[in-house]
Specification:
4 strands; single chain; mainly alpha; two-stranded antiparallel ribbon
């Protein structure tokens, strides 16, 4: 169990931060950016939960997602491979966690009408919040892919998890939009009621 007695340590005042293991790294380091963006995605998932009053099943699901995202962050904050003699293995995202996301996607998507156009982020307050969480999750995924290219020992399951998470958040946003009935659809080339002469 993690025990935090002090909130500030002053050790980062030189612009570096400590990982779970290995030397300190600059705060602009790609690995720090990746797990920091996972943390940002987690915060937006938490914000979305403020809108789930009428959807307790989605709230419970998002609660588990928040815990899993902490696993993802811990995974990305721990570079390298374990020493075979290590007493405790490193916490890594596992395939079972990604499989759980896929199961939720299939379950919630089953009752939604197929899309005939791309969805614009919006609709209900919950749908809008989920779309924001989705886009931040996509950014976390892109950064983790970039990290994996630079540091090949990065856990590939972290990439898969973030990819499925953004898919799940998209599906949940459609559920929050009355199973897609309140989706705001993209109309290509539609300029609305643009005033003449503009």
């Amino acid at each position: 169990m993690v025990k935090l007695n002090r909130i500030y340590t002053k050790t980062g005042d030189d612009g570096t931060t400590g990982l779970v293991r290995g030397p300190r790294r600059p705060k602009f380091d790609l690995r720090v950016e990746a797990y920091g963006t996972v943390d940002e995605a987690n915060a937006f998932v938490g914000h979305a939960r403020l809108q789930t009053n009428s959807m307790p099943k989605i709230d419970m699901l998002l609660s588990r997602v928040q815990n899993d995202l902490f696993d993802v962050g811990s995974d990305l904050a721990t570079p390298g491979v374990d020493d075979p003699a290590a007493e405790h293995p490193t916490l890594r995202v596992r395939a079972v966690q990604t499989a759980w996301l896929e199961k939720q996607i299939d379950h919630f998507n089953a009752d939604i009408s197929p899309l005939k156009s791309f969805v614009l982020p919006g609709g209900t307050p919950l749908a809008s919040a989920l779309h924001i969480a989705r886009t931040v999750s996509r950014r976390a995924e892109r950064l983790t892919v970039q990290l994996a290219a630079a540091e090949p020992d990065t856990n590939p399951e972290a990439v898969r998890y973030l990819n499925r998470l953004s898919d799940l958040l998209f599906v949940l946003a459609r559920v929050a939009n009355a199973n897609g009935a309140k989706d705001v659809l993209w109309v290509p080339g539609n300029h609305g009621d643009v005033a003449k002469g503009d």
